[in-house]
Amino acid sequence: MMVPVRCFTCGKVVGEHWEKFRHRTQEVEDPEDPADVLDDLGVERHCCRRMLVSHKDLVDIVAPYQ
């Protein structure tokens, strides 16, 4: 669904980084390594990194059924 606003484990705000992370890791021409992008965005904790790396954006798939 939608990216969580806060990390489930530590409570740090991670939702603000989702658009930049997705854009930089899914570019068609030259995608960047997710670890480098997270380092550049300042997401250092493993629990917070997990929130962004493991998220699957399903809003566009589920929205027509509501």
Contiguous uncertain segments of 5+ residues: none
**Helix coverage percent of residues?**
40-55%
Q: Please give the CATH architecture.
A: Orthogonal Bundle
The backbone outline, from C-alpha atoms, is flat
- Biggest sheet architecture: none
Rg, alpha carbons:
13 Å
Q: Helix count?
A: 4
The H-and-E topology, N to C, reads as HHHH
Task: Quote the beta fraction.
Answer: under 5%
Structural class: mainly alpha
| Number of beta strands | 0
By CATH reckoning, the class would read Mainly Alpha
Distance between the amino and carboxyl termini: 13 Å
Structurally, how many domains make up the residues? 1
CATH fold assignment: Arc Repressor Mutant, subunit A
Mean pLDDT: 89
Write the layout of secondary structure elements.
Layout (H helix, E strand, L loop, with lengths): L17 H8 L8 H8 L4 H8 L5 H4 L4
Helix pairs in contact: 1-2
List keywords for this structure.
single chain, 66 residues, Arc Repressor Mutant, subunit A, 4 helices
